[in-house]
């Protein structure tokens, strides 16, 4: 089976062809990603209108490029998978409409994929992971701890009640005068900083429920920065290092509880326990080290797919489509609508947090 995948939910335009072999193994035949970073960086964040226009301009060419690099024609594709939510509605419309047009013209089935499902299933393509496992998604728009029970079976165990973790990095960078995107800039500055100089809050630590909260941390950073302004380079480095320390300690507590809960829930099963990370924040070395150490303590495998597959890409969307086809999920109707909000788990309490 071979699928063409399309991803346009945020600021990456992406197309990919992925094959699933009879033994269940996935093979990425092509994976083209065009980041719009340069177009948004002047604004310090993603501008929806600019994003939608950029998707329109780039997508057709990227789809052709993905087919060309995979060396397949549309005839040799079994289905078209496109992200249909959650995300910025303009981009979603562009991707989904394009996928519908291709599906219609070629007579191939259309699969409308939840972006989060793409992130959730990636580790099965890269590491052949079997169900169940835990997935931590930490990106600019999402912070979720999800139990992945099976294809289409997800339980959201924790989510952020305010800012996403990547967003906290971006906002912290912005108020310290560091460039966008903030994550890499904060990490770099933190390398020469003192993580003990400021004791920033560790939101939610100790609470039984598994949610996250990062807006208080950002406020504490703002207060510290205002108090000691004007900031020297060393001050900025110390704030970044202390911020990162607070984030790591918070994740340690929150994810540690998640691993514990997983152990309890599946105590009766003799399984290879695993925690998978996804999202751009997974690039952060201190966060990786923290999670890795935590996994060793709790007897979990720590799985971090290659960064290019952790951040937004179309291979994960194609793969999610392949997993759905293999499980004989029905194809989607050509009038399926994009959804800017679309919780992965149907019973998610959308009042709690972003509902994304
Ligand atoms: P989504 O819609 O999936 O949330 P996104 O574009 O917001 O998409 P990604 O592209 O997965 O998310 O990740 C971008 C985020 O990752 C940004 O917030 C960025 O600051 C953060 N990030 C990137 N590198 C690092 C790093 N080294 N440390 C911390 N955060 C990082
Ligand atoms: Mg992105
Ligand atoms: Fe994403």
Automatic annotation (TrEMBL):
CDD domains: ASKHA_NBD_TsaD_bac. GO terms for molecular function: iron ion binding; tRNA N(6)-L-threonylcarbamoyladenine synthase activity. NCBIfam families: gcp_kae1, T6A_TsaD_YgjD. One of its GO terms (cellular component) is cytoplasm. Pfam families: TsaD. Keywords: Acyltransferase, Cytoplasm, Iron, Metal-binding, Transferase, tRNA processing. One of its GO terms (biological process) is tRNA threonylcarbamoyladenosine modification. It is an enzyme of class 2 (transferase). It catalyses: L-threonylcarbamoyladenylate + adenosine(37) in tRNA = N(6)-L-threonylcarbamoyladenosine(37) in tRNA + AMP + H(+). HAMAP family: TsaD. Required for the formation of a threonylcarbamoyl group on adenosine at position 37 (t(6)A37) in tRNAs that read codons beginning with adenine. Is involved in the transfer of the threonylcarbamoyl moiety of threonylcarbamoyl-AMP (TC-AMP) to the N6 group of A37, together with TsaE and TsaB. TsaD likely plays a direct catalytic role in this reaction. It is found in: Cytoplasm. This is tRNA N6-adenosine threonylcarbamoyltransferase. Residues 27-319 form the Gcp-like domain. It comes from Neorhizobium alkalisoli. InterPro entries: ATPase_NBD (IPR043129), Gcp-like_dom (IPR000905), KAE1/TsaD (IPR017861), TsaD (IPR022450). Its EC number is 2.3.1.234. Substrate binds at residues 137-141, 170, 183, 187, 284. Belongs to the KAE1 / TsaD family.
């Amino acid at each position: 089976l071979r699928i063409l995948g399309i991803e346009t939910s945020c600021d990456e335009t992406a197309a990919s062809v992925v094959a699933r072999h009879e033994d269940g193994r996935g093979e990425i035949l092509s994976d083209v990603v065009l980041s719009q970073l340069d177009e948004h960086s002047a604004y310090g964040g993603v501008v929806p209108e600019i994003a939608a226009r950029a998707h329109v301009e780039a997508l057709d060419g990227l789809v052709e490029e993905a087919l060309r690099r995979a060396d397949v024609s549309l005839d040799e594709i079994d289905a078209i998978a496109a992200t249909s939510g959650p995300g910025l509605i303009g981009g979603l419309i562009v991707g989904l409409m394009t996928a519908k047009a291709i599906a219609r013209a070629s007579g191939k089935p259309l699969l409308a994929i939840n972006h989060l499902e793409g992130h959730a299933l990636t580790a099965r393509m890269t590491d052949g992971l079997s169900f169940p496992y835990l997935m931590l998604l930490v990106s600019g728009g999402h912070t979720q701890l999800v139990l992945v029970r099976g294809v289409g079976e997800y339980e959201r165990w924790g989510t952020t009640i305010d800012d996403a973790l990547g967003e906290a990095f971006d906002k912290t960078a912005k108020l310290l005068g560091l460039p966008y995107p903030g994550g890499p800039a904060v990490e770099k500055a933190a390398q020469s900083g003192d993580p003990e100089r400021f004791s920033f809050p560790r939101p939610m630590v100790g609470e039984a429920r598994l949610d996250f909260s990062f807006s208080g941390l950002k406020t504490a950073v703002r207060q510290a920065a205002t108090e000691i302004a004007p900031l020297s380079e060393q001050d900025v480095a110390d704030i970044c290092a202390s911020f990162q320390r607070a984030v790591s300690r918070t994740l340690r507590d929150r994810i540690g509880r998640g691993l514990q809960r997983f152990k309890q829930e599946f105590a009766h099963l003799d399984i290879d326990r695993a925690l998978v990370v996804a999202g751009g924040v997974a690039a952060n070395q201190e966060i990786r080290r923290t999670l890795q150490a935590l996994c060793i303590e709790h007897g979990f495998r720590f799985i971090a797919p290659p960064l290019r597959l952790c951040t937004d890409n179309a291979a994960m969307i194609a793969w999610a489509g392949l997993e759905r086809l293999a499980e004989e999920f029905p194809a989607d109707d050509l009038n399926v609508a994009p959804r800017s909000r679309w919780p992965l788990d149907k019973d998610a309490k959308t009042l709690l947090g972003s509902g994304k």
